[in-house]
C-alpha cells in the first residue's frame, strides 16, 4: 500500500521547518514538498493541499484560512498550527491529553487545530483541577509565562538575532500583551473549562526556545482547601499513562530551587510541577515545555500520527 502523503504548507517557517525535520527521514509517509520559488503561489499550494492525505498548515492566521478554503478534496485532512480555528465549531482541539478518549477523537477528525504554545501549558494545569471540582470554574485565574523568542516566528527571531533587522533589539527580557487581549486567552478559557476570562501575562526572553507557564493559586479559595499534595495527585492521576506529559512528585518539586525554561527543548514532552507552601496556603503551578516541541511542531506530528493510524509516539 502506498505511504500516506503529507504536505506542510509553510514548510520554510519556524514551525514548518521543525515539522519537516521530524518527518523527513520517515519511510511510513511520503512528504510532498513545494517548489520553493512557488511556496506562496495559490495554484501550487492548492494542488499539493488537495493531493495530501494530511495537510499541516504552519502559516499566519489569514493564510491558514485561505489554505482551508483551497481544500476541495474531501479526503484531505487538515492540522492547522495557527490560532485561526482553535475555538471554531467543527474543529477538534489537538491536545490529546485533554481527557481520556480524546486521542481517539483526534484520530478520527478531518480538521484538527494544533494547540497554542502557552495554552498547552495553561490548559494542562487548569482543566483537570476544574474537572475534579477543586478549582472553581469562576476562580480569577492568572497565567504568567515566559517564552523564548522563536515563539514569535521568523520575524521575532530576526529581531533578536539579526543586528541589521530594522527592529533589532538587545533587551534581555520584556513583557507584552499588556492590553490583556492576547490571542490565546479565548483558547485558555474554553479548554481550561473556565467561566472567567483568565488574566494572561506573557513575557519573552533573550533566548531562543523553551517556555514556563505558571498559574498561582490561593489554596483557601479552592473547593475543600486542598493541599499541594491533593493538587499534585489530581494532575498525576489525570496524566497517568500519557507518553508526553509527566507530573513531578511533590518531593521532586520541593527539591528544586530554580527551574530552567530550556529544560525540555528538542522534545515533545511537557512536565508539570506543583510548587508552593501548605503553610502559607499558596500554590505555584508550572508547566515546562518547548514552544516548538509540545507547544507546536511535536504536537502536530503527534496528531498526524494518530490521524494516520500510527502510534502517536512515532518519530517523536
Ligand atoms: N513559533 C512558535 O513557537 C509557534 C507558532 N505557532 C503558529 O504556527 C504558525 C506559523 O508560525 P511560525 O512558524 O512561528 O511563523 P514563521 O513566520 O516563522 O513562518 C510562517 C511561514 O509562513 C509563510 N507564509 C506566510 N504567508 C504565506 C502564504 N500566503 N502562503 C504560503 N506561505 C506563507 C511565511 O513566509 P515568509 O518566509 O516569506 O515569511 C513563513 O515561512 C502561526 O500561526 C503561529 O501562530 C504555533 C505554536 C508555536
Ligand atoms: C514569544 C511570542 O511572541 N509568542 C507568540 C506565541 C506563539 C504563537 O505564534 O502563537 P501560537 O502558539 O498560538 O501559534 C505570541 O505571544 O504571539
TrEMBL record:
<dbReference type="InterPro" id="IPR058924">
    <property type="entry name" value="AGPR_dimerisation_dom"/>
</dbReference>
<comment type="function">
    <text>Catalyzes the NADPH-dependent reduction of N-acetyl-5-glutamyl phosphate to yield N-acetyl-L-glutamate 5-semialdehyde.</text>
</comment>
<keyword id="KW-0963">Cytoplasm</keyword>
<keyword id="KW-0028">Amino-acid biosynthesis</keyword>
<keyword id="KW-0055">Arginine biosynthesis</keyword>
<dbReference type="GO" id="GO:0003942">
    <property type="term" value="F:N-acetyl-gamma-glutamyl-phosphate reductase activity"/>
</dbReference>
<comment type="pathway">
    <text>Amino-acid biosynthesis; L-arginine biosynthesis; N(2)-acetyl-L-ornithine from L-glutamate: step 3/4.</text>
</comment>
<protein>
    <recommendedName>
        <fullName>N-acetyl-gamma-glutamyl-phosphate reductase</fullName>
        <ecNumber>1.2.1.38</ecNumber>
    </recommendedName>
</protein>
<dbReference type="Pfam" id="PF22698">
    <property type="entry name" value="Semialdhyde_dhC_1"/>
</dbReference>
<dbReference type="GO" id="GO:0005737">
    <property type="term" value="C:cytoplasm"/>
</dbReference>
<dbReference type="GO" id="GO:0006526">
    <property type="term" value="P:L-arginine biosynthetic process"/>
</dbReference>
<dbReference type="Pfam" id="PF01118">
    <property type="entry name" value="Semialdhyde_dh"/>
</dbReference>
<dbReference type="InterPro" id="IPR036291">
    <property type="entry name" value="NAD(P)-bd_dom_sf"/>
</dbReference>
<dbReference type="InterPro" id="IPR010136">
    <property type="entry name" value="AGPR_type-2"/>
</dbReference>
<dbReference type="InterPro" id="IPR000534">
    <property type="entry name" value="Semialdehyde_DH_NAD-bd"/>
</dbReference>
<keyword id="KW-0521">NADP</keyword>
<feature type="active site">
    <location>
        <position position="117"/>
    </location>
</feature>
<dbReference type="GO" id="GO:0051287">
    <property type="term" value="F:NAD binding"/>
</dbReference>
<dbReference type="InterPro" id="IPR050085">
    <property type="entry name" value="AGPR"/>
</dbReference>
<dbReference type="InterPro" id="IPR023013">
    <property type="entry name" value="AGPR_AS"/>
</dbReference>
<feature type="domain" description="Semialdehyde dehydrogenase NAD-binding">
    <location>
        <begin position="5"/>
        <end position="106"/>
    </location>
</feature>
<keyword id="KW-0560">Oxidoreductase</keyword>
<comment type="similarity">
    <text>Belongs to the NAGSA dehydrogenase family. Type 2 subfamily.</text>
</comment>
Amino acid at each position: 500500500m502506498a505511504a500516506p502523503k503529507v504536505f506542510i504548507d509553510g514548510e520554510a517557517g519556524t514551525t514548518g521547518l521543525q515539522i519537516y525535520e521530524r518527518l523527513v527521514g520517515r519511510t511510513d509517509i511520503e512528504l510532498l514538498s513545494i517548489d520553493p520559488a512557488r511556496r506562496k503561489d495559490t495554484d501550487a499550494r492548492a494542488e499539493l493541499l488537495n493531493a495530501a492525505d494530511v495537510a499541516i498548515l504552519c502559516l499566519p492566521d489569514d493564510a491558514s484560512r485561505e489554505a482551508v478554503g483551497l481544500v476541495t478534496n474531501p479526503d484531505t485532512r487538515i492540522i492547522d498550527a495557527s490560532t485561526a480555528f482553535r475555538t471554531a465549531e467543527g474543529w477538534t482541539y489537538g491536545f490529546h491529553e485533554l481527557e481520556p478518549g480524546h486521542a481517539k477523537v483526534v484520530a478520527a477528525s478531518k480538521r484538527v487545530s494544533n494547540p497554542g504554545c502557552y495554552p498547552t501549558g495553561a490548559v494542562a494545569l487548569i482543566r483537570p483541577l476544574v474537572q475534579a471540582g477543586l478549582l472553581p470554574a469562576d476562580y480569577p485565574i492568572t497565567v504568567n509565562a515566559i517564552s523564548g523568542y522563536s515563539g514569535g516566528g521568523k520575524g521575532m527571531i530576526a529581531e533578536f538575532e539579526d543586528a541589521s533587522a530594522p527592529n533589532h533589539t538587545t533587551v534581555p527580557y520584556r513583557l507584552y500583551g499588556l492590553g490583556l487581549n492576547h490571542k490565546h486567552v479565548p483558547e485558555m478559557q474554553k479548554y481550561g473549562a473556565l467561566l472567567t476570562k483568565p488574566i494572561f501575562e506573557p513575557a519573552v526572553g533573550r533566548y531562543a526556545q523553551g517556555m514556563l507557564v505558571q498559574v498561582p493559586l490561593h489554596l483557601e479559595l479552592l473547593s475543600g482547601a486542598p493541599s499541594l499534595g491533593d493538587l499534585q495527585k489530581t494532575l498525576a492521576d489525570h496524566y497517568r499513562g500519557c507518553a508526553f506529559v509527566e507530573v513531578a512528585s511533590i518531593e521532586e518539586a520541593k527539591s528544586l530551587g530554580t527551574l530552567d525554561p530550556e529544560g525540555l527543548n528538542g522534545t515533545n514532552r511537557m512536565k508539570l510541577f506543583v510548587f508552593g507552601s501548605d503553610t502559607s496556603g499558596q500554590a505555584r503551578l508550572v508547566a515546562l515545555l518547548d514552544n516548538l516541541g509540545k507547544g507546536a511542531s511535536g504536537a502536530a506530528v503527534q496528531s498526524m500520527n494518530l490521524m494516520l493510524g500510527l502510534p502517536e509516539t512515532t518519530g517523536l
